[in-house]
Amino acid sequence: MDYIVIYLILINALSFLLMLVDKYKAQNNLWRIPEATLLTVAAIGGSFGCFGAMKACHHKTKHQKFSIGVPVMMVIHSLIIWDLARLL
């Protein structure tokens, strides 16, 4: 269980950081992080970090892939975490 908690903390921190970096790059006309990368990191457990960054820096909030997809991933991840916690 400890490894799962550590994984979730790290993947959500990474997801948050990637979104912040992409926002910075967008504001400064630099090479961007592909949306597929941001969504993949969110899908493998980083949905909470991605959502937090969306709200904190108002990034990708108008893209339906993010505004709908990330909250759906959060629900799915919450259910998985709840089920895992119930088993242990």
Please give a structural write-up.
By secondary structure, the protein is mainly α. The protein has one domain. The protein contains four helices and no strands. Helix 1 crosses helix 2 and helix 2 crosses helix 4. The radius of gyration is 14 Å and the shape is elongated. The N and C termini lie close together (8 Å). The model has no long low-confidence stretch (mean pLDDT 95).
Give the SSE layout.
Blueprint lengths: L1 H26 L7 H23 L6 H4 L1 H19 L1
Helix pairs in contact: 1-2, 2-4
What is the percent of helical residues? over 70%
Q: N-to-C SSE series?
A: HHHH
- Low-pLDDT sequence parts: none
Strand content: under 5%
SS elements, strand count: 0
**Sheet with most strands:** none
Radius of gyration, in Å, reads 14 Å
Distance between the termini: 8 Å
Instruction: Give the helix tally.
Output: 4
Shape: elongated
Number of domains: 1
* Mean pLDDT figure: 95
The SS-based structural class is mainly alpha
